[in-house]
Write a structure and sequence with these properties.
The protein is mainly alpha-helical. The chain contains 26 helices and no strands.
Length: 476
């Protein structure tokens, strides 16, 4: 009642009612507990009845106390904590029983006995897993049995990625493998973890645009004819005598590294979702990235290639990928091989063995279906792969007649207008959107000019051989 009267009297313009209320309140303060009055009445009223000395100071003290109780984060000094529980925890994890259920029972007992933080226990479990990747099946079952919290596991991995991103040594590969296995089993969501990874899309896009601009500048400098007579012939010879590979050290990218770990774990669909969220060719631009895609495609086509083309042992050994299906029909080839092949783009040129296998499979299919080539869906996909992957890769490879012969062997069955449409796209589009192709084209033109400038009737054969060893920019 006094709280209601306090509010009503403080809002009225009549001062007399307010004074009467204060006098009544002063007379009853001896009979009511002061704590109750301090909870219910306004600070100005409390000051007037002399229950507090200063309303402003009381308000400041109240705000500080409330903040300390409800909003201030507690800090723990780990050196003063009782670490017996964590010692026993690490001992249990280093020598786990064969049954994950027995292990989780032990962990819950340790949490209850020593009052351990469950989140810290889960973090230690993940840290231990990184050091015992050979026991991944056990730790996967253990994490599934751990008491569930809302995205707690994903947040912990995110904090680990954020921590290592700032470290000079970079993120350990084992952390990416753990994350990939958790995504594969559906324990965490890829898109939730993606938000914790660095760098941001804007930074990746800026880095991709920088590579494009650097490639254009280099191509421009290589194709510009120098009129400086003071430039020595030796310097020009050194620039032109050998093709330079413009592979610089690739900076660490957690999104690309997670994608590599997903592919290596046999999670192509999840990896492909991640590839579509980052700039084009970010994964194959990384040497490890293109290697895992080479291994994936080689493994998937291995048995099909042996049964339909050749059973001979290849130079490049095929790496087995557990729980990843293999191609058994042309329909499987369309669904399981062409998408990762498309993601490679011109970087397929880094694996001539796989390049040859793909061309032979394309040849076999086109020969079997050349009568109905325009109406077959896989034939249309092969045309797309030829435009976006095969021909650009040919531009980047050291000249080998076998490759051009294999490509022509199946392209000759394409309709005339389709063939020249592919040639036009190769000439006008492919070289403009990939930095590696830009530099390759410029280096080829630069070296060809250098050789032709010194060509005479006496050295036709040796210089002709040099030209034949270089990738030729078609239709130039």
């Amino acid at each position: 009642m006094f709280a209601v009267l306090d509010i009503e009297s403080s809002t009225k313009e009549d001062v007399k009612d307010r004074e009467i209320f204060i006098k009544v309140l002063e007379s009853v303060t001896k009979h009511i507990k002061h704590d109750i009055l301090k909870e219910r009445l306004e600070y100005d009223t409390l000051e007037r009845v002399k229950l507090i000395s200063n309303s402003k100071q009381f308000n400041t003290k109240y705000v500080r106390t409330r903040t300390k109780l409800f909003y201030k984060q507690q800090k723990f000094n780990l050196l003063r904590e009782e670490n017996e529980g964590y010692n026993k925890l690490i001992t249990e994890l280093a020598n786990p029983p064969s049954d994950p259920q027995t292990m989780i029972d032990h962990l819950l007992k340790l949490i209850g006995r020593f009052d351990l933080d469950p989140n810290r226990v889960l973090d230690i479990v993940l840290e231990t897993w990184q050091n015992y990747l050979e026991k991944s099946d056990f730790f996967l079952q253990l994490v599934k049995l751990f008491p569930k919290q809302d995205d707690a596991l994903c947040r912990m991995l995110g904090y680990s990625f954020a921590f290592y991103e700032k470290e000079p040594g970079g993120t350990p590969e084992s952390l990416f493998k753990v994350g990939a296995l958790l995504i594969k089993r559906g324990i965490i969501d890829l898109h939730v973890l993606y938000s914790h990874l660095g760098p941001s899309y804007e930074e990746m896009k800026a880095e991709y645009n920088k590579r494009l601009s650097d490639a254009r500048e280099k191509a421009k400098s290589l194709t510009t004819v120098s009129l400086n007579k003071d430039e020595t012939e030796e310097n020009s010879d050194a620039k032109s005598s050998k093709k330079t590979e413009t592979e610089t050290a690739v900076p660490e990218n957690q999104k690309v590294s997670l994608c590599i770990a997903l592919i290596g774990s046999g999670c192509w669909l999840e990896a492909d979702d991640l590839i579509q969220l980052i700039p084009p060719y970010s994964v194959p631009h990384n040497p490890k990235g293109r290697e895992v895609i080479f291994d994936l495609i080689s493994w998937r086509i291995h048995e099909f290639y042996k049964s339909h083309v050749s059973a001979a042992v290849t130079v490049r050994p095929v790496k087995e990928i557990k729980n990843d299906p293999q191609v058994s029909s042309w329909e499987d080839l369309s669904e399981m091989v062409l998408t990762p092949l498309f993601r490679l783009g011109p970087y397929l040129s880094y694996c001539p063995v796989l390049f040859t296998k793909i061309l032979r499979l394309f040849n076999l299919f086109i020969k079997e279906n050349k009568a109905d080539i325009c109406n077959h869906s896989l034939a249309g996909q092969i045309m797309t792969m030829t435009s976006d992957v095969i021909l650009p890769s040919l531009s980047m490879m050291n000249f080998n007649y076998n490759f051009t012969a294999l490509i022509w062997e199946y392209m000759q069955h394409f309709p005339y207008h389709i063939r020249y449409r592919l040639y036009a796209k190769w000439k006008n589009v492919s070289y403009a959107k990939n930095p590696l192709l830009m530099v390759t084209k410029a280096e080829t033109i630069h070296t060809s000019r250098y050789i032709l400038k010194r060509l005479t009737k006496e050295n036709v054969k040796p210089f002709g051989r040099q030209i034949a060893e270089w990738p030729i920019v078609t239709l130039r």
